Amino acid sequence: MSFPEDALEIARAAMEDVNPKLVEPFTTVVSFLKDNPDYAPKDSKKAPLGSPEYIGKLAKKFSDGRAPKQLKAPKTVQDPIISVILQSHGNYTPDELQKLRKEHELAMAAENLTGDLLEDYIASKAEPNGWVQCSGYTAKRVDFIKRADDGSNWTKLQVKNRDNSENSSSRSVRDGKSIQKWHRTHAKKEGSNWHKFPDEQLTQQMSEEDFLDYVAQRTSSSKNPID
Fold it and tell me: Domain-by-domain residue ranges, the chain?
């Protein structure tokens, strides 16, 4: 099954029920998926690809993906060997080891949060310039899309926080997919990569200092240390 001819009308109606302010960007994402169904997230028997149920679920994910971001405890259970290794490198008390494990968990949560905040920051600058953030993972392998002024094609962009944050989506981009890639920082040298963002107009509007200010403002209003 592919997206029906009236997919955009269905998308508009679905997002009107979820968040009317997001009707236009969400409709753009559905238009992209209609043109490029290979990028559509997995469907299900109850919500086949392109069905009103499928588009309705996408609308909810798209909206939820734009909610304020907060620290979340990693879902993986911390390996007890970490305490053994730490103990072998210092004469820590049980309480100190527990504190180190907690701080490690917080650092992992902060690292996971950085990617989401990076996308939200870029969206705050890029969406007024014609880009749309595929929030809520509403498109596979793609974080941002932009349609050509004449409607002839789409620019597809994947962003990463560091140049070594490899994952399955990144590998698929390398394997012949026509998706532009950009990363914020380098793993083995200082400095950021904002000057190489693949939109010349936006390179004048984004910087590392501005991103850090954005993160400080967003996180200070939603502090929730992991219990």
Answer: 1-67, 112-227
